Every structure is written in structure tokens, then in C-alpha cells.
Amino acid sequence: MKRRSLLAALVAGTAGLAGCGGTGDGVSGGRTTFGVPSTESTTETPSATTRTDAETTTTVRGGDPGVDPVGDLAVPSAVDRSLLAGVPEDRRLVFSFDGDLPDDTTLTAGFLRPPDLEDPARVWMALRNDADRQRTFGFGPTPPFSGYFGQSPTGFGPEPMLVPDDDRGYARPGIVPDDPRGEGCWTAESVFVAPDVRTKLALGPGEAVVGEYALVFGHQAEACFPEHQVYAFRDPVMDFRLLLGTWDPAVAVPGESRFDRSVPSLPGVAGTAWYHTAADAQVYLEPRGETLSLPRDSTDFLLKNFSTDRIRIDEAGWRLYKYRDGRWFRVLPWETDRNYVHLPPGGESRVLLSMDNRIGYNRQGIVRDIGGGLYAARYGSIPLLADFDSGPLRVDGDDPGEPAEEEPRQAQAALVAVEGDPVGVEPDVPSDRIERDGGTVRADYGDGGESVFLARRASSEEGEPVRVIAEQANQTVALRNTLGFFEEDVQRVRLEASETLVRRPASRFGDGSDPFLFSYDDETFLGRVE
Q1: Which of left, alpha, beta for 524 (phi over 0: left; psi -120 to 50: alpha)?
Q2: pLDDT score of 400
Q3: pLDDT tops 70 at residue 14
Q4: What is the sign of the dihedral through the CA atoms of 147, 152, 154 and 159?
Q5: Measured between alpha carbons, how far is residue 192 from residues 66, 121, 162, 217, 456 in Å?
Q6: Could you tell me which of 205, 242, 213, 212 has the C-alpha nearest to residue 27?
Q7: How many CB atoms lie within 10 A of CB 17?
Q8: Any bridge partners for residue 274, and if so which?
Q9: How far is CA 61 from the centre of its chain?
Q10: Cα separation of 221 and 295, whole Å?
Q11: Residue 249: Cβ within 10 Å count
Q12: If we measure between CA atoms, which residue out of 369, 377, 410 comes closest to residue 290?
């Protein structure tokens, strides 16, 4: 079936759906004719026409975009945000959204059909006015969406195009070929420059503007649908982007892992999705290396989203844990700024883990003074019972503000084996700032602070202590520089530092109360701020 015949069939099918109850949109009925009740273009051309209806005068410059609001929108049942394109190769194609819509509007988008040897993939979009009054919206030349070209983050690779139907005012006949190149790779017939046109369209309450598009690749593209890519189609007028994720389903699966063991879930989450058990996962954290060697090594982790929905992640929210005696101990980080972003289908987010036991001071982004053993890196989380939607992409313009944390949540995590010797706790206070008076050690951290953290030996009879391991103490200034001085005849250590540093032990390892009990290396201590 050629493109014009297919268009006629799709329009007829959409009209037939009007009034049906199974649209999933909560509305029914409608019309699918085309015309413009209120449009205005900013492009200056010699030709202009004026038409009048009951509500407004319409001025059209540069041509008629050929769209008419559809009352009581009915979404075709075939519209889907995701499909599997079988030609020229198997590729998963998924639409997602990034940006903002005007208040009280809804955007619906998706695929009507995959590409084959007869026709390219076809895309359906609608923008609806959900307000209780008529409103005028600004568009590019082909409402509801005029982002012709998809851009990759790197700027390399074939660029896809969303070409509007040939019967619309600013479409370019001849851009979409009658036949594919090769085995189903649809590329434009010629170089295409998008028209610089702005239109205005009045939409009554509940009315929508609808458009259909062919998905093809640029004229000089050597291939279609790369193995893994995310493209951004940016609308030139409205402040949003449609994102198209493409990937080969054969590569969108976790690789082989060196680990074959059961470990408990990480603390603070309802569940943990481990990479080494993620055989069929759509979202997972993949390490580039599962074995590191001390004293210095590094690896990175890729959080991959091969679901049909974007996921919300905190890019500053990675954590490192160590496994000891059947439980997990959080090592780093403890205090971070939140940086929430959305990871689209097909998207990746990278986290670097770098360790160096040779440096003599804390350096941002580097974990120092850790010992060998089993570690876990955590990054990203999704609702524990996430049900990824494959229906039409729907986005509304009612911004709920900063989303609340959903509970329960499942963390994405991966195991890492670190090869090296055990580590102890060594203070890093210069020797000229250390004084010894009998069983008491006084140390000045040298940051100009005048607060004091006092640690003394205690007994388990004073309460239930919180266990601290060496890797945790080494990342916490007040513990590192008190525990590190407890030789056999030392009973207490007084560390002078800033108030922020001396209060961290209680906030990190206790419940924030002062004083608090903690244990290290089978000994119990009491810490307090003076």
C-alpha cells in the first residue's frame, strides 16, 4: 500500500473510531476535516488570504497549514509509544518527552505502524486544549509538531526526520520516497530545509489539533536506525522535545557477570535489583569492570534504561557499600546535592568509581583508604512494582512541582570485587598538632574550628553500640582522627575541628543524638560534642 492510499485508510479509520468508548482517552466523538479557524504566520510572502468565522479573523501568510481542530478527540487504538521495527533490522523504537507544555494541555503521540518494504513508519500526534475556554496557541508550520529533524547527543550518525503528510500546507512533496533504499531503509529523496514559518491556532475547550508524519532518515544517510541511539526532535516554537530511543533488542540485555551468589538487599530501599541477577531486566546498572585492584584502580557504571518509560534519577545519588559479616556498610558518599533528571528510553547515565590508597588527603570523586573485599555500587531507583506503559505517550501541562519520592523503591546496583590487603584507621593530623597527657590525646585538625569531638572508651553495658568499619571511619574526619589514636593505654581522644566535622559521626552512624555509642574492631566507644 502506497503512502496516499494508507493516509486515506488511516483517516477513515480515525473517523470510525470517533464515538467509540475504548479509546482510553475518556472522550469520544469528533470530526476529522481540515481547515483553519484562526492562524497567523510570521513569514512575509506576497500572497495572503483573509477568512472570517463567528469568533475571529484569520490571516494566513506563506500558505495554509491545512489543519482543523478536532472536537472531542478520539485517539486511534493503534497508536503506541513503542514498536519493534523489523526492517532493515530489528530495532525497538520508543517515544518519550522532555520539557514543558502550556498549562491545561495534553500531548498524545505514538506510532501508527512500523516501517516495512511498502511504507516508512508513521507517527500520530495530537495537542488538546483542556481548559474551559478558547485559547490561541503558537505553532511552527505543521501543527501540532514542527520538529522536522532529530539530533543525536553526539551529532554523529544518521539523522531521522518527521515529515508531515503531503496534503498539508508546508509538507514537501517528493521528500518521502515511493520505495525504500535497500532492505527497508527509508531515506529522503533530496536535501530538505525546514520552512521558517510561525502560525497561531485557536482551540476551543476540548479541541485538539492532529497531525500525521512519516519517519524517514536524511538524504545522505548511509543507514537507518543505529544499534543504540536517542534522538531529540525539538519543536521550534513550544518549549519541549520529543525523544526517540532506538536500540537493538539483542544488545539491550545485561551481559555475563563473574558473580553467582546471593546477597542481602541494600539498606534504605524496599528492594535491590542486582546486575548479576538481572537477566531479563529493562533497567539495570552495568559495571564496565567487576574486579578492581588496590592501591589504585577505577571503573564506571552505566545505568541503562531499555523500558518504554522515562525514569527519574538523582545523578548525585550514587552510593558505595562494603559487605562484612553478612551485612552492608555504607562507605560513601554521605552528603550530596540532589540533581534530579529524567533518563529516557534508550538513555544511559554514567557514574565513575575511582579509588586511590596512595593519596594523603581526601580528593573529590576519589575513595581513599579502603581495604579488599566485596563492594556494591548503587545508582538510580525506580518504583518497586513499576509497570512500564506501552500505550500512547501522554503528557499534560499541569506541572505537579517536584515529584515526591515514591515508595516503595527498588535500587539498581552492581557488585564489585576489590583485591587488596585489609585497611586500618590512620589519623591524618600533622604531628605538631598532637599532644599527649597521660591517657588523653589532644589533636587539632587545623581547619580553624573551635568545636571538640570527644571519644572515650566505653562498655556495652552503657547501651547498644552502632558498628563502624574501617572504611567508614576513614571517610569521616572525626572518627578517623580519634579512633586512629586509640593505642592500648589511651582512654580518650579530644579532636578540635569545625562544628560541621565534629557533628558528622552522630548524624552518619547514629540517630543524630549526642552522645552516641559506637563500636570499632570489637571495642566500644562513646562519642560526644563539646
Answers
A1: beta
A2: 57
A3: no
A4: negative
A5: 20, 19, 12, 11, 76
A6: 205
A7: 18
A8: 413
A9: 41
A10: 48
A11: 11
A12: 377
pLDDT for 403 equals 54
Give the residue carrying C-alpha cell 473510531. 17
Q: Give the span between the Cα atoms of 162 and 145, in whole angstroms.
A: 9
Cα–Cα distance measured from residue 132 to residue 387, given in angstroms and rounded to the nearest whole number:
32
Block residue for cell numbers 475571529: 56
Contact between residue 66 and residue 169 where contact means Cβ atoms under 8 Å apart: yes
Handedness of CA 21, 26, 29, 30 (dihedral sign): negative
How many helices (DSSP H) and strands (DSSP E) are in the chain? Answer: 4, 33
Work out the number of other CB atoms within 10 angstroms of the CB of residue 457. Answer: 14
Q: Which three cell numbers stand for residue 486?
A: 586509640
Strand partners, 82: 94
pLDDT at 334: 84
Q: What is the chain's length? A: 530
Q: What is the pTM (predicted TM-score) of this model?
A: 0.83
Span 420-425, average pLDDT = 96
Virtual CA dihedral for 399, 400, 402, 405, nearest 10 degrees? -140
Q: Quickly tell me which residue has 505514538 as its cell.
A: 110
Instruction: Measure the CA–CA gap between 284 and 305, rounded to whole angstroms.
Output: 7
